[in-house]
Write a structure and sequence with these properties.
The protein is built from 8 helices and 21 strands. With 360 residues, the chain is α+β, with helices and mostly antiparallel strands.
Length: 360
């Protein structure tokens, strides 16, 4: 098992810099999820870790070993791909055994490792089948089993759930998380799905344009986003944003509504215009005239809760409410942020501002 240390890593493609100088520490046995939109550099970073892409600058350490020039086959990592990458003419057992046979492992050792991995992944009944006879979820388990038998220092996952349907994705997601606890191995998982990131990670690394925007536990990133990008990307539906003016009597919205300072930590200093961020579940319904007037435009019942799309202060806003309320399109409701749950952002730097008036 091993930690990963990345110092000022640079990756270029021709004249384009994809990763301009990235620093990251991943602890031994930690489950890290790299998340961000397409093109943010997360898969490129994973391929650099795997040795599939050369490094153009900086330093990469796996454990105590510098691996900048070490080929992929000698890095002691195992990678699970989005498309499974199984050999179609081989059985599950043969697919799992192949890498060990190439290493010259003894037959008894190979059989033992396959049986142990098959037990962990619950694929014992499928060992003598070929991939075409398996479902998508079973194939992904085989791909993970092929990685497990190698007993690597680090597991790398490149969007392994993207080809699965929603129900199966949730099931395999939970299986990978439980597997990480059993194997106690460092894991780096790439996804564009923020729900996968929130539910699986020990820590999340949010990336944009090759730059790390925030690193933290799922709770830290969700509750205290570093900037507007993180606030909008993490959370489903994403955070609502409203322009506000910092005035002597409080925070005034575009429609003239005044938000009580008891609900929002008023920043010190002369800020003027800021952006107010509120998550859909952090609105409270209040009595008429006591908050922000909101006209219901669309209602989305989800069973466990209801998403209400409203027009408020000239903005489209989404509110999460109990299904027992049964709101109707065309109604007017009054909203107020829950105490301590709203955030303020500088609209120019996009950085979140704390109650002292400083960027977090």
């Amino acid at each position: 098992m091993a930690s990963i240390t990345i110092r000022n890593l640079v990756k270029n493609y021709g004249g384009v810099t994809v990763i301009p100088g990235l620093d990251l520490e991943i602890a031994d046995e930690e489950f890290i999820v790299l998340v961000g939109p397409s093109g943010c550099g997360k898969s490129t970073l994973l391929r650099v870790l795997a040795g599939l892409e050369a490094i153009d600058g900086g330093e990469l350490m796996i454990g105590d070993r510098r691996v900048n020039e070490v080929p992929a086959a000698k890095r002691d990592i195992a990678m699970v791909f989005q498309d499974y990458a199984l050999y179609p003419h081989m059985t599950v057992r043969q697919n799992m055994a192949f890498a060990l046979e190439m290493r010259g492992a003894e037959s008894a050792e190979i059989a033992s490792k396959i049986e142990e991995a098959a037990r962990l992944l619950d694929i014992q009944p499928y060992l003598d089948r070929r991939p075409k006879a398996l479902s998508g979820g079973q194939r992904q388990r085989v791909a993970m089993g092929r990685a497990i038998v190698r007993d690597p220092q680090v597991f790398l996952f490149d969007e392994p759930l993207s080809n699965l349907d929603a129900k199966l994705r949730g099931q395999v997601r939970a299986e990978i998380k439980m597997l990480s606890k059993k194997l106690k191995t460092t894991m780096v998982f790439v996804t564009h799905d923020q729900i996968e990131a929130m539910t699986m990670a020990d820590r999340i690394v949010v990336m944009k344009a090759g730059v790390i925007q925030q690193v933290g536990t799922p709770e830290q990133v969700y509750e205290n986003p570093a900037n507007l990008f993180v606030a909008s990307f993490i959370g489903s539906p994403s955070m609502n944003f409203l322009p506000v003016d910092i005035q002597a009597d409080g925070l005034r919205l575009a429609d003239g509504s005044l938000l009580p300072e008891s609900l929002i930590a008023r920043p010190s200093g002369d800020h003027g215009k800021l952006t107010l961020g509120i998550r859909p579940e952090h609105f409270e319904l209040v009595q008429e005239g006591q908050g922000l007037a909101a006209d219901i435009e669309l209602v989305e019942p989800l069973g466990s809760d209801t998403l209400v799309h409203v027009s408020a202060a000239g903005q489209e806003v989404i509110v999460r409410v109990s299904p027992d309320l049964r709101p109707k399109a065309g109604q007017r409701i009054w909203l107020s942020p829950a105490a301590g749950k709203a955030h303020l952002f500088d609209p120019e730097t996009e950085i979140r501002i704390d109650g002292t008036g400083k960027a977090d």
